[in-house]
Amino acid sequence: MADVDYTQLEKRLGKQLLARRLKIQSHHVVRLFGAGRARLHIGNIRILHRIMRRTLKVLGIYRIGYRNAMNLRVEQNEVFFSGLPQAFDGFRILHISDAHIDDNPKLLSIIQDKAGNLDYDICVFTGDFREGTFEDYRIPSQHMAELVQNLNAPVYAVLGNHDCIEMVPLLESAGIRILLNERVVFERGKASLYLLGVDDPHYYETDDLEKATEGMPNDAFCILLAHSPQIIRKAAFSGVDFYLCGHTHGGQTCLPGGHPILANSRCRKDQRKGAWKYHRLQGYTSRGAGTSSVNVRFNCPPEITVHTLRCK
Fold first, then answer.
1. Distance from C-alpha of 137 to C-alpha of 101, rounded to nearest angstrom
2. What confidence tens digit (pLDDT) does each residue in 41-78 have?
3. Residues 72/97, Cβ–Cβ less than 8 Å
4. d(Cα 212, Cα 197) in Å, to the nearest integer?
5. What is d(CA 251, CA 95) in angstroms, rounded to the nearest whole number?
6. 10 Å Cβ neighbour count for 126?
7. pLDDT tens-digit profile of 194-212?
8. If DSSP states are collapsed to H, E and C, what string results for the chain?
9. Closest CA to 95 of 309, 262, 272
10. What pTM does this model have?
11. Are 286 and 305 contacting, i.e. CB atoms less than 8 angstroms apart?
C-alpha cells in the first residue's frame, strides 16, 4: 500500500525477513498449503467454515458454543523466578492473545469491561489481531485502536500468522508498540527487565531471536513474546526466563476434560495451553480471547490473563 513505509519496516525486521513475509503474503498458493511449520492452514478453508457452522446449527449446539465463546474469563497466573530482580517483584502483565477482533466485534466491549477491573503494569498481545489472513487489515486495526484506548498501561505486541506487516504502522499509531525481533527495557532504580518480541514463527517463520537478544547482558531477566509455542526449545537455550504465546486457542473445540481435537502447533501436549516449564524456562500459552474459523468454543473457555512475577 502507498501509505506504508516499507523502508522503515525493512530497517526493523531486516531486508531478508521482510522480503520473505511480503512474498508469502502475496502468494495465493500458500493461503492454503505450503508455508510455515504447518502443512495445512485450516483457517483459510472458508467452505469448511460454512460446513462446520451449518453442521453445528443442525445439531442444535451452535448457540451453546457461541455463548461459550463470549464467556471470557480472567485467569491469574503467579510465577516465581530465582533470577527476577527484587525491584520487579509483583510486576503484573496483562496478556491478551488471538482476539481475531473483526470476526466478532462484540468481543471488544467484553475485553474492555474485563480489563477495566484489573491492575497491571504493562499489557501484551501475542498476535492474531484479525481473522482473515489475506483480506482487509484496516478494520481490525481500527477495532484494536478502539480497544487499547481503555487500557491503562503501556501496550506491546507481536504479529501472528493472521496479521500482515502493513498493520504495523496502523497499530503503532494507536499506541501499540509492535516488536519486530526487537526489545524494550524497563528500569526500576538500578534493576532492569527486558521484554523481547519476535515476528511470527508459525506461518511466516520470520522470527529472529538472535537479533532480539543481541548485546543483551548475560544475566538479564527477559520475557519473550511469540505468537506460537514453536520456538520454546530455542528460547530456553537463549537465556529467556518467561515465554508468553498463544495461537493454539487451547484447541477451541475440545473433548470433555479439555483435551484438544486440534491444536495446530508442533509442541508438547502440556505446552498447548496454560502454564508450563521446559528446563529452566517457564511459560504460558493463552487459550486466546477470540475464536478462529467458527465463533464457538466447547470445553475450552476464552481468556485474558494477568501474570504476576515473584522472586523466589
1. 11
2. 555 555 666 777 777 777 778 899 999 999 999 999 99
3. no
4. 7
5. 18
6. 28
7. 999 999 999 999 999 999 9
8. CCCCCHHHHHHHHCHHHHHHHHHHHHCHHHHCECCCCCCECHHHCHHHHHHHHHHHHHCCCHHHHHHHHHCCEEEEEEEEECCCCHHHCCCEEEEECCCCHHHCCHHHHHHHHHHCCCCCCEEEEECCCCCCCCCCCHHHHHHHHHHHCCCCCCEEEECCCCCCCCHHHHHHHCCEEECCCEEEEEEECCEEEEEEECCCCCCCCCCCHHHHHCCCCCCCCEEEECCCHHHHHHHHCCCCCEEEECCCHHHCEEECCCEECCCCCCCCHHHCCEEEEECCEEEEECCCCCCCCCCCCECCCCEEEEEEEEEC
9. 309
10. 0.91
11. yes
Nearest 10 degrees: Cα torsion 111, 114, 117, 122: -50
125 class by beta-carbon count within 10 Å (0-12 exposed, 13-18 middle, 19+ buried) = buried
3-state secondary structure 15-58: HHHHHHHHHHHHCHHHHCECCCCCCECHHHCHHHHHHHHHHHHH
Residues 128/157, Cβ–Cβ less than 8 Å: no
What pLDDT digit, counting tens, does each position of 183-194 carry?
999 999 999 999
Give me 9's grid cell.
519496516
**Three cell numbers, residue 71:** 464467556
Q: Taking Cα atoms as reference points, which of 244, 234, 55 lies closest to residue 157?
A: 244
Q: Which domains does the chain have, with CATH numbers?
A: 6-311 (3.60.21.10)
Alpha carbon distance 192, 243 (integer Å): 17
Place of cell 501499540: 176
